[in-house]
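Hi R.,

Here are the chain sequences for the assembly we discussed:
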Amino acid sequence: MDISPVFFYVFAALAIGFSLSVILKKNPVGNAFSLVMVFFAFAGIYAILGAHLIAALQVLVYAGAIMVLFIFVIMLLNADEPSFDMGRSHIGIKIGAGTLCAILFCTFVWAIKESPINIPAGRFTPEAIQASGGNTQVVSELMFSEYILPFELTSVLLLAAIVGAVAIAKRKLGKN
Amino acid sequence: MTNFEWLTMGAKIAFIVVVLLQVVPIMVWVERRGSALMQNRLGPNRIGPLGLLQSICDVVKFFFKEDRAPGHVNKFYYTLAPLIVLVPAFMTFAVIPFASSIVIDGQTVNFQIADLNVGLLYIFSVASLGVYGIIMSGWSSNNKYALLGSLRSTSQMISYELSMGLSIIGIVMVFSSVELGAIARGQGEAFFSVGMLTIPKWGIFIQPIGFIVFLTSVFAETNRLPFDLPEGESEIVAGYHIEYGSMKFALFFMAEYINMTVGAALITTLFFGGWQMLPGMHWLLEVMNLDGMAHEWVRILFEAASFGAKVCFFMWFFVWVRWTIPRFRYDQLMDLGWKVMLPLSLVNIFLTGVLIYYKVL
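And here is the predicted structure of the full complex:
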């Protein structure tokens, strides 16, 4: 890919910035909108990496469907700002949380620095994908040949979840 | 990218944006004159020939109105919402091909801004974003009518997005591609012929059920009558844009018409052969007997004109339906979406699979 790394830094900065706003903002709807932006930034990074299918699905599923329901629920519950204001936290909690964050950050830095840089390329290099008809074609072919069992199992799992959700909703309806 | 590619890309983007912006005032005029025609009135007829300049006056009025925000709104989201409605409307058009390709100096130019490998998925993912603007405007307005409108719109869009997505699976199965360019090309083949008459492989002929479901869903997704519950003037006044005025309101208005254009272009591309020439144009092209580049350019012109004509027809269709069918009740809307359209689109997928298995399609 001949796309400049500048784009990576832009999207990464956006992702980090909006992630911070997700946890720091006091307004629940604002938090949810920030989370949508985080998903967008991720989709941008996927697109830079040449994984257009994942980028499109990221926006379609997470930003377009799941977050809409989140915001729906937040709006319906009418969660206002005071209910998110826990007051000032104890100084000990702040120090403890800060230390844990620092340790986690150091671990990540160490892990990334120590891991070998030259990971051998797998079967699906960008060229190979391009040759066999693009992302969508390759992923769908794999899904319906090599990974048919896990794919179908996931579908059954989702179906079970849907049936369960309907069952729970119906029971509540019956009581009233 | 080379200079040539930058140039053609810029030209294509400019062309699409300019055309889409021009669609709005023209469609407003068509809508007003069309409704007048159907209701046996005159409609706007004072300014310019046939009242054509009425839209310009409206635009000027929108620009010069005082742009004020009510005191009880959440300013930031209130201002952002119209933009978030408008931008996805424009973005969708990026993958719609409006003519085939031409070779200039050995370089192929596609008349499509981005020939994405994920074409259709891109359209769905972008289209699903429009709902955020509506949620945002409803919530930030701090108004019960606005919130009700945006809740209605959200549930409506989510419900119909499902059947919309599933109705296209049939088309994707037949042409075994999600690229809109490939789908438009594939529709040029002959489906079957009866004597002199050759029926092309247009989506409407091979996917009639899919077409009906898709058409209905497009109406629901664009919030147009008979599915304009989010606005519902008689019940919730104007729904999510009740607190908006001047140019901010105009942006919602523009988004609606641009969404309509995108819907019409999608129907054309998926079910009416996209840029495939209208009957008779092939013959005309041969009669003109041009050679070399002139022939190619005339071909592109004819294809773009065919695409435009089909899109215009569906734009008129939107207006036609709006002033013919009354608004649905909310439970009727949901019943139609979940109990009729969704099963119908599933049946369509099954039937298409069977037909492909027996090599009919």
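Chain A touches chain B at residues 29-30, 33, 36, 52-53, 55-57, 59-60, 63-65, 68-69, 71-72, 75-76, 134-136 (CB under 8 Å). The longest helix of chain A spans residues 148-175.

Let me know if anything looks off.

Best,
T.
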